[in-house]
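Field log, afternoon session.

UNIT: design team B
ACTIVITY: writing a sequence onto a fixed backbone
BACKBONE:
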């Protein structure tokens, strides 16, 4: 386990939309470098940068045309190498995005693979042996290649599936995962990883990490075997490199070698019930929505077994949002976001802040761009200040990659930095708190102290710290039970020192009173 992950707070950067330094309307690597001091000052010490490789951008860069080349619109490989160095000078680690399941249909491997004549890349992708047969329930394309076969898709039409084989084979053209062609795909992936690690990157966020072997068993054992093999390479040659999976199944991902796995917004899962319960019939009962009348047990019943099962294997990553998910500001106000980010920054594992969530950027209802569709509204330019294009770019507003939020009350870093009560300054205080107390970091223990169905507050313990959260718009109280873990001193009373609070919260003996929308951290003395 890379040591630096223990105290890591990640910042996800969508490079298109972060900072444009050459005024062509699109963010660039130099823009990220320019803002490294900002990232550090916010309290983040690690970055995940969405794909910045050469691509036709039919899926915003997740359709990679050349894994080893920075897309010219973002700069050059030298710029990225410089970014690694500048980040390291500031104690910031950098994860790139690795897309192992598919390439762009314009990748050189695929252009070779489509040829009628057999060559070194013929089996790099999943092909049938005839242009007229389907691919057993998977999406595929037929009739587009010289070669007499159909090829499988992994996501959009532009993203043919790389061939890691089939665990349960029913057709002659399906290869076993240990077929030399499938091993060659895995080795090609390792070669790409080595390329960037050798140039100074610190690891990868791995796209659709569970999508490698097809017709895998329900434990994804064959896909897991590939990741274990890759983890062996890392442990041996790059022990400080980290891999974080887009899998959202910590049991499978962390036991397959990932260091951390995202807790993604999947309808009805624990994370979804905290801030994104928008699709449940009968209204939004998100626990962290002030009038949601939520139920913390919906979260805990999903999260606790996952946490207990994997806490010795790796980390579960809470995210404020990501480039695929509607921004939380869509349904939550600044005060609700403060409590939400406070919770995510005081839970175990490795947290991720999506750029702009520290100021509560909005989800914009805008037309699709580069395959974004409903995701596009979460990908708009970072709002730095009140100058042209909110400081993102000096380009003509009509030529920006995506429109900037131009509403009168659009938040900006400049405004919020001046206001000590802003969301931005709350996030800075929270990241500082997490860095100060090892108990709050990735490995600190986690125990529920008070959680009752449809009740507030929610109280949990991290090591020597007690955290009380009342997200509701009503004052809440709790009576702690005799046998709970606060009872530490001889007289049966806990002695507590308040070390952080958003609004008021008191613990007297076994009685807790938490103001509406409050968050507090106490240290057991
Ligand atoms: C992941 C990415 C998403 C992309 C898809 C295909 O889900 O996060 O943005 O479109 O994979 O690569
Ligand atoms: Ca630019």
């Amino acid at each position: 386990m890379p040591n630096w992950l223990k105290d890591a707070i990640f910042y996800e950067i969508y490079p298109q939309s972060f900072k444009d330094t050459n005024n062509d309307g699109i963010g660039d690597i130099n823009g990220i470098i320019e803002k490294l001091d900002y990232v550090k000052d916010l309290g983040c010490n690690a970055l995940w940068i969405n794909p910045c490789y050469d691509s036709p951008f039919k899926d915003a860069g997740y359709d990679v045309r050349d894994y080893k080349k920075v897309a010219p619109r973002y700069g050059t490989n030298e710029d990225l190498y410089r970014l690694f160095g500048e980040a390291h000078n500031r104690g910031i680690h950098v994860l790139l995005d690795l897309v192992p399941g598919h390439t762009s249909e314009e990748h050189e491997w695929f252009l070779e693979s489509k040829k009628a004549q057999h060559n070194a890349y013929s089996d790099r992708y999943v092909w049938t042996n005839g242009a007229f047969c389907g691919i057993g329930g998977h999406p595929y394309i037929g009739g587009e290649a010289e070669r007499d076969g159909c090829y499988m898709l992994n996501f959009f039409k532009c993203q043919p599936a790389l061939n890691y084989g089939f665990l349960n084979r029913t057709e002659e053209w399906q290869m076993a995962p240990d077929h030399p062609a499938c091993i060659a795909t895995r080795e090609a992936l390792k070669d790409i990883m080595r390329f960037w690690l050798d140039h100074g990157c610190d690891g990868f966020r791995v796209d659709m990490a569970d999508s490698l072997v097809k017709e895998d068993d329900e434990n994804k054992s064959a896909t897991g075997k590939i990741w274990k093999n890759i983890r062996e390479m890392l442990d041996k040659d790059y022990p400080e490199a980290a891999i974080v999976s887009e899998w959202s199944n910590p049991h499978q991902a962390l036991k397959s070698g990932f260091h951390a796995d995202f807790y993604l917004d999947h309808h009805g899962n624990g994370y979804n019930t905290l801030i994104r319960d928008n699709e449940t019939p009968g209204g939004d009962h998100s626990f962290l929505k002030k009038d949601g009348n939520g139920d913390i047990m919906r979260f805990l019943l999903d999260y606790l077994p996952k946490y207990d099962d994997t806490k010795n294997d790796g980390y579960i990553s809470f995210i404020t949002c990501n480039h695929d998910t509607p921004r939380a500001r869509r349904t939550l106000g600044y005060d609700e976001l403060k409590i939400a980010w406070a919770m995510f920054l005081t839970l175990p594992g490795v947290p991720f802040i999506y750029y702009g969530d520290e100021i509560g950027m909005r989800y914009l209802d805008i037309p699709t761009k580069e395959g974004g569709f409903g995701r596009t509204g979460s990908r708009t330019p970072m709002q730095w200040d009140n100058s042209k294009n909110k400081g993102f770019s000096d380009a003509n507003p009509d030529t920006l990659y995506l429109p900037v939020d131009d509403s009168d009350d659009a938040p900006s870093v400049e405004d919020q930095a001046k206001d000590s009560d802003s969301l931005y300054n709350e996030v800075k205080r929270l990241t500082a708190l997490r860095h100060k107390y090892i108990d709050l970091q990735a490995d600190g223990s986690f125990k529920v102290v008070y959680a009752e169905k449809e009740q507030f507050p929610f109280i949990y313990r991290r090591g020597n710290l007690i955290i009380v959260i009342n997200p509701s718009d009503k004052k809440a109280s709790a009576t702690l039970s005799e046998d709970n873990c606060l009872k530490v001193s001889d007289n049966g009373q806990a002695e507590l020192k308040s070390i952080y609070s958003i609004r008021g919260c008191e613990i007297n003996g076994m009685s807790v009173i938490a103001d509406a929308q409050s968050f507090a951290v106490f240290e057991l003395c």
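LOG NOTE: The longest helix spans residues 180-198.
NEXT ACTIVITY: expression trials, pending approval
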